[in-house]
Amino acid sequence: MREKSLSKVKKLDFSLLIISLALAVFGLVMIASATRGGVKELPSSYFVNRQLLWILIGYTVFFLLSFVNIRRFESFSLLVYLFVNLLLVIVLIAGSERMGAARWIDLGPFSIQPSEFAKAAVLLFLASFFSRIKDREPNFVELLQSLMLVGIPAALIFIQPDLGTTVVLLASWFAIVFAAGAKSEHLVVFILVFLLLFAVAVKFELLHDYQLKRLTVFLNPASDLKGPGYNIIQAKIAVGSGGFKGKGIFSGTQSALRFVPERQTDFIFSVIGEETGFIGSVLLLLLYFALISRLFIISSQLAEKTGKLFTFAYAFILVFHILVNVGMNLGIMPVTGIPLPFVSYGGSFFLVNMICLGIMESFWVHRKPV
Amino acid sequence: MLGKKQSKGKYDWSKQFELRLTFAVWFTVLVFAVLVLRLWFLQIVHHEYYAGLAEENRLREVKTPALRGKICDRNGEVLAKNRFSFAVFVDKNRIKDRDLFKKLALALNTTDGALLRKALKASFSIGENVLVARDLTIDQVSYLKERSEEFPGITIDYLALRYYPHKNLASHIIGYVGEISEEELNSREFENAEPGDIVGKTGIERVYDSFLRGQKGSIVYEVDALGNIRRVVSTEPAKSGKDVYLTIDYKIQQQAEIALKKAIERARKLGHRKANAGAAVVMEVNTGKIIALASYPDYDPNLFVTGVDPEIWKQLTAPDSGYPLLNRATKTGYAPGSTFKPVTLFSAFDNRVTFLGESFYCAGKWYGFGKDWPKSCWRKSGHGTIGLIRSIADSCDIVFYELGYRLYKLKGEQLQATARKLNFGSKTGIEIGEIQGRVPDKEWKKNYFKNRENQIWHPGDTVNLAIGQGDLLVTPIQVVRFYAAIANGGKFYRPYFLEKVVDQSGTVLRSEKPELDFEVNFNPAALRIVRKGLREAVLSGTAKTAFAGFPIEVAGKTGTSQVFGRDDYSWFVGYAPAENPQYAVCVVIEQGGHGGEVAAPAVRLILASLFGIPENDLVKAVDVSR
Predict the structure, then answer these.
(1) Which carries the bigger pLDDT value, residue A161 or residue B393?
(2) Which residue has the higher pLDDT, B600 or A2?
(3) CA B616 from chain center: how many Å?
(4) Residues of B in contact with A332 (CB under 8 A)
(5) To the nearest 10°, the Cα dihedral for B496, B502, B506, B508?
(6) Which residue, A100, A311, B120, B489, has most beta carbons within 10 Å?
(7) Average confidence score pLDDT of chain B
(8) Contact check, Cβ <8 Å, B224/A259
């Protein structure tokens, strides 16, 4: 048993561990910097301590999952999926509201964000769903079925409202069906349908005004100086003023003087840009790029379809998060509530990322010898 | 067919997956490339721009006002200073809030209309806040502060306001301050000024504004996004304005103003009911320093400090107000009457149309233009045989008609040339505003009149000019300067007010020196005659009773100028002591009647204070000459 464990440790992909840890520590420092002087009534230590705790929890979960052969529990993915949907329903009924959206379930000192867990649950469930299709492309009916499966939690999240996570779920679905080999013409049809649906949603005002504004304001942030446009402008100023070398960690003015709102969560990249400059920002992007590259390699090298699909889709989701979040901080993407993986303050999101990494490690550690 | 299907239909997902994986990798590379490019663009290419914006974000500069320098007289008596006052300001966006104004009016014991008028005029503001009331009592301040929630948009500030402790005294010299106007902001005159600044609007306040205004200080704060001040980054203390010392003597100024008032009263008592205005100037003969310069009616410059009330402005500028804002000593052109006669005499000597010892005969009428066109002397009975000295002392018109006509016959407009040489028709160079007056000639007449008949210059025009009548216009400052030149032998000094500029530590930054504008060579014989004539006018001539018993030897000339449709204007101008002249003094009383009766006693009263002679009232003079 001991020997078996040891061999498992040896088989671990340490790059995932090291890169994610580097990102988490980098994030922790930036959270400390972003929240110095406190946010609202909360002191900086509140955020740092909590994030540290979540990092510890995250790695514990990561190791647990790594050493469990996830394949044996693949059938549980349906259960997890159902459970997450249940949580999403609960959050709608009894969720605690923050900033106009009910996204959290209070659990004493902590609160969890079921929508974040939905990201992992949906990925795993869909990967499992498509892995059962052998030796052929998924047909249109199956694509539609899978979309329905994503659609339920996506709809529940959409009405919270949380447009960002909704879009992430849809992107996850797209990544999985793309990887699962859906025909190009089917993909095109779905993309067109999405666009049409979006147009309908806009037309019939299913989207809140502020959501629509957030989506378009980055094109002309000066048009909305009291809302998200202000965030974009201030984030750009923060990043741009950082210059090549940055103002130094704990020395940014845009963050310390609270010009950038949400600076420890969605806009943490602006603090990074301001305080660590071009060097730090590019270094961060390189870390991400290394992590994602490694994930693509893993997904290529894994034998089983579930693992391949899951890893691919997860890597894609990371790219999506980085593009949208960093792009938002740089003023080239809409303002959506999409955080920066491993770096942004937020326990649920951090934990979900560690769960996903753990699942992949499990696939990797328990891969069949070639 | 079957084989073909088998070979082609064998679906290999892994291969397909690898293909799509490659696609995903390239997509990822693209995403990261875009982000890095964008970072490069923001952080390297446009770094300076965003760094500037970040600084702008965090730094707030607050200007601190500088105290305006004092204005003092030559002995340090303060004529303009600062006083501190609690003032109420209302946010511009709250001006329509009627309830607020009603409540405020109740608290300040005034009417909401008065407050609103002030607010709407917005003549004094700090940022977005406009002043509605000042000089609050401590009780009013604490009342408003305790109930600050009931008064949204109201701020109370403790301000340094301009204060003129002597009120109307020397108001035409000192001028007043006010909030800088749009025009003034764009003018070269107020170069470092900013909107909302208080600057000098008229008088010394305006002319020496650059000394008086001082330099605003600044405090640079670091602020957060909500505008909360985090710390002070730097401070630059305000530099108070410099103190300006004037040549005027406030006691003499006071006496001059009293003399004007009394002279007007006297004129009215004597039946000149329309007498209502006048001017007085006292100048140092050998320097050009103005010791006093008064104009009546006058005004209280304190009314202008936070913007003049429209009602008061209306009163000050109404046609029946007597135009108290007008400085008659420098900005009104008068016919000088007989005070001009010395000019004619100088011209006559320069052009050799008379000679030392020439004697004339005055029978009360002059027939130079023929029997049908007689011109009268003011003394109907005539002066009899009269020489040049007595012609000045007794102000004989016949002599000057004759001299004027002789000058006319030279056909060269020599009389006008002499007048111009003696600075009539041009500005004296005094710091505060003045007009140049007018010396009429052929050219002027042609341009001035539309009617062909009126355009012709008649011999009578020159003859009238010779006794200071006709279209000639002079300012009191020009006249006093001319008499100072008679006294000092031909030196025309630039009249001036600025004695020195002193900074807060007492260092003299600028000390004004007398400036000799130009010098004329009077014909020595003419100068002797004029001086003697002026002295005799006081001793035995037209100003005899006005100066009877005055211990200082005075030389001077009366004038009683005629203005069409109005009562005669009363003039006296002279200098003292006659043998060693120090001061030249000029008084004109509009519609005051005879010079010897009204203006001369006023000059005596002013001279009395100059030489420390205890006289408190006008003497009763009975000179009815011109």
Answers:
(1) B393
(2) B600
(3) 29
(4) 34, 38
(5) -70
(6) A311
(7) 91
(8) yes
